[in-house]
Automatic annotation (TrEMBL):
SUPFAM superfamilies: Alkaline phosphatase-like. This is Arylsulfatase. Signal peptide: none annotated. Keywords: Hydrolase. GO terms for molecular function: hydrolase activity. PROSITE patterns: PROKAR_LIPOPROTEIN, SULFATASE_1, SULFATASE_2.
Length: 498
């Protein structure tokens, strides 16, 4: 639909001359999605040692959710849920994927970008993908498909998996950027290529040391997960990644300013390896992890400024969140632990990335739409999975997310009645949140992942916490409240079908 037809209903709404419902407007939609940013990493969410003024502007000018969740405590499943509106535990392959994994989303599946496309939106992704590419045997030297362009994105500029996994190249609409024909790329997650150095065997070549994992191919002095050969001219410069994604996101906005667009701006910070641009080095006093959060915040400020300069800010709904909770040492020696000081990445919550405790999945979650949302803090229980059907309600699309719920009025700050319940996931284990309560069934496995120093939520006994009274999950009420436990277990089994 042409933009000029959209302005009229908007004007009517604003002037209050008619009872036009929001269903009839088509604002641009931007999802800004960080990687491993914790509930306590944002000053608007209580961080005192770190300043995030640009994220704070969104939080203070929109709805700041205090009970907003990623579906999972790791990246791939959370991104799967965000884009499909389906619980990732329904898909047994929705685990942290290697860079060679096939596309996880079926090309026949409904997706958020497809739904928006059907309503006339231009759709784009810039940043981290990590949902697999191709059919299982990718040739990185030809157009790679299926990928984001086959599940609903008109435009894609992505890294395939994570910053710490090969191939360390950008892929634009299926083609590796700056690849030279006489230096083809090969990738293997099992075996090294003959004569290629590795983090394990060539420590003298490293500018960042590995702590666990991350000892395969070396790119830019950083040891990675997986082996890669060739593609020299195509390899990204880690320190420029934030600027690269920002520029692509800004260009996307400028290209599509005259039509409704959806941009999924999937930033890489503060996932490892943390490689701030030199102009951000030392800005946080917390080492690279803090510095890349400052860098990410700056990027968000620049991005919002572009929307403003293009006169789009009042016609753009911005959603801000993170794919999972925080981790300090995620496999490199990068001073994240040593220089943390008094900063609390998980805020008042327990656990972190990989954990079934709250800090694994409860993340900063903000909706911002200048002139359309009354600034407020909302305690409503919402999941990123709910964006699918809620945005469908906004633009008049089909609500096809199987587990997604329409909470458009909650996301627009017109109601605080969110979900009654939500299943949370951490590396294939699940727990049930219902009202103020969380029930974690018994799981085998270590209580703590010693390598990353995070409590995982595993216990031989049932755990039951009242999150309103005990946000830090210190007081297990499973024995004291058998009726509550029974009620939770019944619903959990109903939903999980066990
Ligand atoms: C883990 C990696 C970790 C990170 C994570 C994925 C090791 C030892 N650890 O397997 O560094 O890459 O996968 O993170 O390899 S996520 O945010 O994309 O889920
Ligand atoms: Ca992540």
């Amino acid at each position: 639909m042409n933009r000029k037809w959209l302005i009229l209903p908007l004007l009517i709404m604003i002037l209050g001359c008619s009872e036009k419902s929001p269903e009839e407007v088509q604002p641009n939609i931007v999802v800004i999605y960080l990687d491993d940013l914790g509930y306590g990493d944002v000053s608007a969410y209580g961080a005192t040692e770190l300043e995030t003024p640009n994220i704070d502007n969104l939080a203070n000018g929109g709805v700041k959710f205090t009970n907003g969740y990623a579906s999972s405590a790791t990246c791939t499943p959370s991104r799967y849920a965000l884009l499909t509106g389906e619980y990732p535990w329904r898909n047994e392959d929705a685990n942290i994927l290697p860079g060679t994994a096939p596309l996880l989303i079926d090309t026949a599946q409904s997706t958020l970008p497809k739904m928006l496309k059907s309503q006339g939106y231009q759709t784009g992704i810039v940043g981290k993908w990590h949902l697999g590419l191709g059919n299982g045997n990718v040739d990185w030297n030809t157009t790679i498909a299926p990928g984001p362009n086959e599940v609903g994105f008109d435009y894609s500029f992505i890294m395939a998996a994570t910053q710490d996994r090969v191939p360390t190249v950008y892929i634009e609409n299926g083609n590796v950027v700056r690849l030279e024909k006489d230096d083809p790329i090969s990738v293997d997650y099992q075996n090294n290529f003959e004569g290629e150095p590795t983090g394990k065997d060539n420590p003298e070549m490293l500018k960042m040391k590995w702590h666990h994992g991350h000892n395969s191919s070396i790119v830019n002095g950083i040891p990675r997960i997986g082996y890669m050969k060739g593609g020299e001219s195509a390899k990204w410069v880690d320190e420029n990644m934030a600027d690269t994604f920002l520029l692509r996101a800004q260009q996307y906005v400028k290209r599509h300013k005259d039509e409704p667009f959806f941009l999924y701006y999937a930033m890489q910070q503060p996932h490892v390896p943390r490689t701030p641009h030199p102009r951000f080095v030392g800005t946080s006093g917390m080492g690279p992890r803090g510095d890349v959060i400052v860098e990410a915040d700056w990027c968000i400020g620049q991005f919002v400024k572009t929307l403003e300069e293009e006169d789009l800010l009042e016609n753009t709904l911005i959603v801000f969140s993170s794919d999972n909770g925080p981790v300090l040492n995620d496999g490199y020696y990068d001073d994240a632990v040593e220089k943390l000081g008094d900063h609390k990445p998980r805020g008042p919550l327990r656990g972190g990335k990989y954990s079934l405790f709250e800090a694994g999945t409860r993340v900063p979650f903000i909706t911002y739409w200048k002139g359309h949302i009354n600034p407020q803090t909302s305690d409503a229980l919402v999941s990123q999975m709910d964006l699918f059907n809620s945005l469908a309600a906004l633009v008049g699309g089909e609500k096809q997310g199987p587990d997604s719920k329409n909470f458009l009025n909650v996301f627009l700050g017109q109601s605080d009645q969110g979900r009654e319940h939500l299943i949370l996931e951490a590396t294939s284990r699940t727990a049930l949140r219902k009202g103020d309560w969380i029930m974690i069934p018994p799981y085998n496995g270590p209580a703590v992942n010693e390598l990353v120093d995070i409590e995982l939520g595993n216990s031989e006994s049932y755990q039951l916490y009242n999150l309103r009274e005990d946000i830090g999950q210190q007081n297990n009420l499973a024995k004291e409240k058998p009726e509550k436990l029974k009620e939770m277990l019944k619903l959990f089994e109903e939903i999980r079908g066990t």
